[in-house]
Recover the amino acids of this structure.
């Protein structure tokens, strides 16, 4: 994937990047993750053949110990979480029994009259709900921030349209599930999130009256910050749910910020306002029962984009086999970015930056993810190898053993696994072979185990 130069992004992206002191690529991915995560199941981008491409992307950032990324999270999430809190407060002000009668009772009034009657006495509610938003009134939540694992199923059941933006700001999910003895509640949460990011049908218990159709597709978008060690543990885990989450996510690190040219305060505020208005537009459309939809053909040269897709396919084909499962959704990324960028482009701002910058971010993100995964996998292999050496030293410290007896002391008794470990210990002078065929620790090996 060739990328000759970095295009200049729109004002919303530049403002977020400069304010948080992160790269334009990280800001762009954060915008796409948040907007796509709260957009709901009806949001879409029409692709080259008119197919529907969902905008939400799962984003895992190895930056829990980076104050600049934590600052970026606040900037990205504050507007949506503040609007959600206002929705919850308005919903809690309604009498649920009265709302139930109005929604499911005899149609004695028009929809508008029934809504006004339900919220009479509250001018804010009266102004907000002059059309039938019953689903949004009953389910004011669209984002789950650091959800309690004990209550996770109940929290998901309360989410509007069975589609949640799930936010874990500290990587605790990975730390708990990758633990040698994970708590059942955390393992259950990981399994549910894995099902949601994959779009899994499930039977749900509706709130209020409901027809016979009780099967819904639960969807979720995950935005999580973790440390490199936590991400490394997750990659090395045998937990199928964690692997499913990782293979459906964009992963990147968050390097220390570089100095950037100062931007005027008015420009920063105008740019952040564009992002805020994008969040507001997405939520208003979703709560009205719809979803933001764009046609990629309106913002992109489809021949150029098709050629870029071919470059991505060729690049993925050249990856190591162990990396390929983590790039199965690579071809969706430029479209998901296009959807978000079109949403945060101001009225007086040209859309000319949208496609070049989406292609640039896609190219850089995929390369950075490949480098990060390679680095972490090699680190995990080294950790596993050192652990295997330590375990073997402890076994031989108990008593000298024949190699066959040493193999039998393991639950997995494969010679091809344990013989290279033993050979490395012998080469390093930590283990020696006695004349009687027994393996024992050398004096140096005993010092290390002691």
């Amino acid at each position: 994937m060739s990328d000759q130069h970095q295009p200049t992004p729109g004002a919303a992206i530049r403002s977020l990047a400069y304010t948080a002191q992160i790269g334009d690529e990280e800001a762009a991915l954060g915008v796409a993750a948040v907007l796509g995560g709260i957009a709901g199941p009806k949001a879409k981008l029409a692709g080259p053949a008119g197919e529907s491409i969902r905008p939400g992307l799962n984003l895992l950032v190895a930056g829990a110990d980076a104050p600049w990324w934590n600052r970026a999270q606040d900037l990205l999430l504050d507007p949506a979480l503040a609007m959600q809190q206002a929705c919850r407060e308005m919903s809690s002000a309604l009498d649920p029994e009265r709302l139930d009668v109005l929604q499911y009772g005899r149609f004695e009034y028009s929809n508008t009259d029934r809504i006004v009657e339900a919220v009479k006495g509250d001018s804010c509610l009266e102004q907000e709900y002059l059309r039938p938003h019953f689903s949004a009134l009953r389910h004011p939540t669209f984002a789950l921030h650091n959800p309690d694992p004990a209550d996770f199923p109940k929290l998901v059941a309360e989410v509007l349209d069975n589609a949640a933006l799930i936010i874990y700001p500290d990587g605790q999910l990975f730390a708990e599930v990758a633990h040698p003895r994970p708590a059942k509640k955390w393992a259950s949460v990981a399994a549910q999130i894995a099902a949601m990011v994959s779009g899994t049908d499930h039977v749900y218990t509706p709130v209020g009256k409901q027809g016979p159709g009780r099967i819904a597709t639960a969807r979720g978008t995950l935005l999580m910050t973790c440390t490199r060690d936590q991400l490394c543990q997750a990659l090395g885990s045998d937990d199928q749910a964690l692997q499913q989450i990782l293979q459906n996510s964009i992963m990147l690190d968050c390097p220390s910020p570089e100095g950037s040219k100062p931007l005027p305060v008015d420009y920063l505020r105008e740019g952040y306002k564009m992002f805020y208005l994008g969040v507001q537009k997405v939520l208003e459309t979703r709560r009205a029962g719809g979803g933001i939809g764009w046609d990629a053909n309106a913002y992109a040269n489809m021949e150029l984009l098709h050629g870029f897709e071919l470059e991505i396919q060729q690049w993925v084909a050249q990856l190591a086999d162990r990396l390929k499962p983590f790039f199965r959704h690579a071809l969706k990324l430029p479209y998901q970015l296009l959807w978000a960028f079109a949403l945060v482009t101001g009225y007086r701002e040209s859309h000319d930056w949208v496609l070049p910058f989406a292609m640039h971010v896609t190219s850089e993100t995929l390369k950075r993810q490949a480098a990060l995964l390679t680095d972490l996998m090699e680190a995990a292999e080294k950790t596993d190898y050192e652990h295997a050496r330590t375990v073997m030293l402890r076994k031989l410290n108990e008593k000298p053993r024949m190699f066959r007896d040493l193999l039998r002391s393991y639950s997995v008794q494969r010679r091809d696994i344990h013989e290279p470990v033993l050979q490395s210990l012998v080469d390093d002078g930590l283990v020696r072979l006695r004349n009687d065929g027994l393996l024992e620790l050398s004096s140096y090996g005993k010092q290390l185990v002691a």
Notes: Residues 104-116, 121-132 have pLDDT under 50 and may be disordered. DSSP finds 19 helices and eleven strands in the chain. The longest strand covers residues 215-226. The two ends are 52 Å apart (CA to CA).
